[in-house]
């Protein structure tokens, strides 16, 4: 008999074991240690009290990890991972879990629920569509490991007369009218509190007209190993958006720092100017996901 409980009812060791078994043989490995499980839970705001675990008798067999945020009065839920242990796949457990999750969202007065799925995982996408989710966007991971030329994001303009770039705390995004809180969950500032933010200011009005949210990762020797871009946006009313984007990408990816892994995670496919600039700089597409939404 299948019953449902929560992650909080499991020991930490059993929760991590279930997570890893749930993603065993997955298209992309998502194996976690206890430390990385705790870190991921904290960073993404995953609620162990509201993350659902399916049991067959006394054996945990699958889960949905849930997180919640409120923005401008709307409560948003995120399915941060649906996993089924290998022996129970193809037996309808995924549908049961999603049904339980949607029921929970309604109990929690959620307005919108979101999730991501690998574009090639057609079986999962069909399940989500059958449960009422619709694809809103494609999410792209670009990458290059080569050193960038100093002019990788040229043509750049002489911007001295109309905008300037400044570093800021990611939390400042929550107060900006141009902030895109409708982007994928892991690209939002709440998931990147320890990340970095570049703001583009109109020199004349003082208004923020663009921003780039990113993170730099250093190895044990203190050397820069990876730069990850999550969001790069410009006020749609601005006429010189391409110039601002080029300047921000130069600031984010720091060509002068030599070779390292430079990438995007869950970059919106609607961000055409950024995608074009990355392509000219030698970035290539590595992975694609679909961003799915359901109005609960």
UniProtKB/TrEMBL annotation:
PROSITE patterns: GNAT. CDD domains: NAT_SF. One of its GO terms (molecular function) is protein-N-terminal-alanine acetyltransferase activity. Residues 2-155 form the N-acetyltransferase domain. Keywords: Transferase. Coiled coil: none annotated. It holds the Pfam family Acetyltransf_1. PANTHER family: L-AMINO ACID N-ACETYLTRANSFERASE (PTHR43617), N-ALPHA-ACETYLTRANSFERASE RIMI (PTHR43617:SF20). This is GNAT family N-acetyltransferase. It comes from Paenibacillus sp. SYP-B3998.
């Amino acid at each position: 008999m299948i019953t449902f409980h929560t992650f909080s009812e499991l020991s930490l060791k059993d929760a991590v074991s279930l997570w890893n078994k749930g993603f065993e043989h997955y298209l992309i490995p998502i194996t976690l240690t206890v430390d990385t499980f705790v870190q991921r839970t904290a960073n993404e705001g995953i609620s162990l009290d509201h993350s659902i675990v399916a049991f067959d008798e006394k054996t945990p067999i699958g889960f949905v990890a849930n997180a919640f945020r409120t923005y401008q009065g709307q409560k948003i839920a995120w399915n941060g991972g649906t996993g089924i242990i290998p022996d129970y796949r193809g037996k309808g457990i995924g549908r049961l879990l999603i049904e339980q999750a949607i029921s929970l969202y309604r109990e929690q007065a959620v307005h919108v629920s979101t999730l991501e799925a690998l574009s090639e995982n057609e079986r999962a996408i069909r399940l989500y569509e059958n449960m009422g989710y619709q694809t809103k966007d494609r999410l792209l991971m670009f990458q290059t490991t080569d050193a960038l030329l100093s002019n990788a994001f040229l043509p750049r303009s002489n911007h001295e007369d109309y905008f300037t770039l400044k570093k800021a705390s990611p939390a400042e995004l929550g107060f900006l009218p141009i902030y895109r809180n409708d982007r994928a969950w892991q690209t939002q500032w709440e998931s990147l509190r320890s990340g970095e933010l570049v703001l583009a200011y109109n020199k004349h009005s003082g208004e923020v007209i663009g921003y780039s949210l990113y993170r730099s990762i250093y190895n044990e020797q203190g050397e820069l190993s990876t730069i990850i871009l999550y969001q790069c946006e410009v006020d749609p009313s601005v006429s010189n958006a391409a110039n601002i984007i080029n300047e921000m990408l130069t600031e984010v990816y720091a060509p002068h720092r030599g070779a390292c892994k430079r990438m995007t995670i869950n970059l919106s496919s609607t961000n055409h100017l950024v995608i074009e600039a990355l392509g000219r700089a030698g970035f290539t597409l590595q992975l694609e996901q679909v961003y799915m939404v359901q109005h609960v």
